[in-house]
Amino acid sequence: MTAELAVQQLPRRPWTGGRVTAFIKRHALAWELGSAVLTVVYVVLAFQQDQGISGPQSIAVLAIAGVFLVEFSVRFYDSPSRLGYFRHHWLDLVSRSTSRS
Fold it and tell me: What are phi and psi of 13, to 5 degrees?
């Protein structure tokens, strides 16, 4: 059995039907570049926040962390194998979470 056939036999999610995973695969380079840009912005703003600069930076850090959390959650839900997705992307969840107050 080929890998493609095996993926087709995995369960499809009712709300997304695998469309999110297919979209991200079709636009992998753009998706990764967009994530990289958001990550750099997040790191710069987080460093500014650590230096005592607050206000809009704090809101932006929380907003970007929220975007990353929503992205992880949607991709986790849409994945044909949630355990497989978590095994390969657990570091995304840990590294992009925020513990700012």
Answer: -80, 135
pLDDT per residue as tens digits for the range 53-97? 878 888 998 899 899 989 888 888 888 888 888 888 888 777 766
Burial of 24 (0-12, 13-18, 19+ CB in 10 A): middle
Neighbours of 45 (CB within 10 A): 21
Half-sphere exposure of 101 (CA within 13 A, CB side): 0
Residue 72 and residue 60: Cα distance in Å, rounded?
Answer: 18
Residue 8's pLDDT band, with cuts at 50, 70 and 90, is: low
**Whole-model pTM over 0.85:** no
